[in-house]
Amino acid sequence: MIKVLGRIAALTAVYLLALTSLAPGDVVVGVVLGGLVVAAGSWIRIPTGASDRPPGAGWTRRLAGVPALVLGTVVDMVTESWQIAGYCLRGRLPSPGLVELPIPKPTSGSAAAWAIRVGLAPASVVVEVDDDRGTLLVHVPDARDPDAVRRAQLDSYVRRQARVFP
Fold first, then answer.
1. Whole-model pTM above 0.90?
2. From residue 109, how far is each of 63, 143, 165 by CA, in Å?
């Protein structure tokens, strides 16, 4: 029951943030919409006997990784903003191109979260998420060394995101 209420509260908070309103009517609508989404999600979910989560991926461990994820994403955004500003001031990009990144654990939630996090930084744009092959196709401003891009992105994934979204 606590999980359900937490999900409804989180969805309501996102709804209110999108509206930038705390009017009582908006809060009621947010709670109703959040409840409908949670109810629809539990109705649609197909129950499975085995969990696809790795051992030790409990909610407390995941929650403990959130500060590193948030701060790491902010660091990536600032670093890549600085990088793009340098490219703009110089007047050209070194060698833009597409790089295919392997997703360490091809689960749709982890891949979607990684794609969103990579896309938040201004230097990289996720072009495609291929769950079947377990890859992300990312456009980067400097694709001269695709292996270096892969190493940097995978290192960022492992250090910042893997604990929160296994």
1. no
2. 16, 27, 7
Please report, for residues 23, 35, 41, the alpha-carbon distance to residue 3 in angstroms, rounded to integers and kept in the order given. Answer: 25, 12, 13
SS3 content of the chain, % helix, strand, coil (to 5): 60, 10, 30
Point out the residues of the chain with pLDDT beneath 70.
44-57, 105-109, 166
Residue 62: exposed, middle, or buried by beta-carbon count in 10 A (0-12, 13-18, 19+)? Answer: middle
β-sheet bridge partners, residue 130: 135
DSSP per-residue codes, 75-95: HHHHHHHHHHHHHHHHTS-SB
